[in-house]
Amino acid sequence: MTEEAAARKARKEARMQARRAQLALSRQDHGGPLAWRGWFDGSAHPNPGKLGIGALLLGPNGERIEVSEAAGYGSSSDAEYAALTAVLQAALAVRPPPVQLLLYGDSQVVINDVLGTTPVGAKGLETQRATVVALLEQFTEVSLRWIPRHRNGEADRLSQLAVNRGSDPPGACAPMGHMPIMK
User: Fold this and answer.
1) What is the pLDDT of residues 102-158, one digit of tens each?
2) Which string of DSSP letters, residue by residue, matches the chain?
């Protein structure tokens, strides 16, 4: 094996180890007894197209807040950012505010953009990133983690409902969009 091939193989193995470590970390839930947990997802039909956002926020005492809203027109990244913004705003509206907030989403683009894990921010999303970062700064302890799409089903369902409601004919009876449900 040439020196160049060995170096490539070592770099590939290092990337795989980093990916496995990140995946293991994302599966851990370090939330304490007062932690609120939130899941968010955005949909664009087609992409770009009509946007729907969905979010689920669960409190430590069984509180449940759902967000399902049409969000205009744009790309899937616009929808994901809008959903993240909505779950953060819902968490800020909770009284007393969450001591700890754990957020989960399936958009690596948005999560990496917010966390700054890529050398260059996502182009065209600077305003959305600034809004989310300003909201995040209002929390004492908050974490943002990527999860696989299949583990984000409830937020996806809420975003799909919002897109589908947005395509109903005028005058059709449809459930309300942003309707907090507290239990």
Assistant:
1) 999 999 999 999 998 887 778 889 999 999 999 999 999 999 999 999 999 999 999
2) --HHHHHHHHHHHHHHHHHHHHHHHHH-----TTEEEEEEEEEEETTTEEEEEEEEEE-TTS-EEEEEEEEEEE-HHHHHHHHHHHHHHHHHHSSSPPSEEEEEES-HHHHHHHHT-SSSPPTT-HHHHHHHHHHHTTSSEEEEEE--GGG-HHHHHHHHHHHHHHTSPTT-----SS-----
Give the number of residues written for the chain: 183
84: nearest Cα among 28, 122, 29, 32: 122
Q: Which residues lie below 8 Å from residue 17, measured CB to CB, with a gap of 6+?
A: none
Beta strand pairing call for 49-58 and 100-105: unpaired
How many CA atoms within 13 Å lie on the side-chain side of 56? Answer: 16
Pairing outcome for strands 35-45 and 100-105:
parallel
pLDDT in tens, 44-94: 999 999 999 999 999 999 999 999 999 999 999 999 999 999 999 999 999
Phi, psi of 129, deg, nearest 5: -60, -45
